[in-house]
Write a structure and sequence with these properties.
Layout: H1 4-12, H2 26-29, E1 42-46, E2 52-57, E3 60-64, E4 72-76, H3 91-104
Antiparallel strand pairs: 1-2, 2-3, 3-4
Length: about 120
């Protein structure tokens, strides 16, 4: 979704605003995938249901629930698109994914990470 800004700017023939983390996907839309620039990795945060972080780097996808403190699950989505087999024993890759999660997270006053709920306690 974030790449829509750069794509719209590319279509309009204007510069992308400075500081925007966005890459135009116009080359792909025009049938020139060889010209397509790509992000090094993709990162998501979820604040619902106790929070989670996810990062995609190459064929690897890592998910950490809750944010910052939970265990990291690791999947090879090329071989396991249903994310059934946790490969978190691959500590070198897990450490890389943890570093990407920590690098990508940006504090924001409108998006506070929820406090962990004690086990067995339901949120009201």
């Amino acid at each position: 979704f974030g790449d829509l800004m750069a794509t719209a700017c590319d279509l309009a023939g204007v510069a992308v605003p400075p500081g925007t983390d966005s890459i135009s996907f116009l080359p792909t839309l025009r049938g020139r995938p060889q010209d397509q620039k790509k992000h090094e990795y993709l990162y998501w945060e979820f604040y619902e249901r106790g929070s989670a972080q996810a990062v995609r780097w190459g064929n690897w996808k890592a998910v950490r629930k809750p944010m910052f403190s939970g265990p990291i699950e690791l999947y090879d989505v090329a071989r396991d698109p249903g994310e059934k087999y946790d490969l978190s024993r691959k500590t070198e890759i897990v450490n890389r994914m943890r570093a990407l999660m920590n690098q990508a997270h940006v504090e924001h006053p409108n998006w506070k990470v929820p406090a962990p709920q004690p086990a067995g306690e339901k949120k009201r």
